[in-house]
Amino acid sequence: MSLVMSLAKRLYELQQVDLEIQKKQEILDEISRQLGESEALVNTRAELLAQEKHLAEIEKQQRDVEWEIEDLRSTIAKVNEKLYGGKVKNPKELLSFDQEAGMFKTKLRQREDSLLDLMAQVEATQDRVESDSERLRKLEGEWQREQEALAQKQAEIEGELASLTQERQALTSEISSEALELYEGTRSKKGHAVVKVEQGRCQGCRLTLPMSEWQRARAGSLVRCSSCGRILYLG
Ligand SMILES: [Zn+2]
Question: How far is the CA of 152 from the centre of ligand 1 (A)?
Answer without folding.
Answer: 42
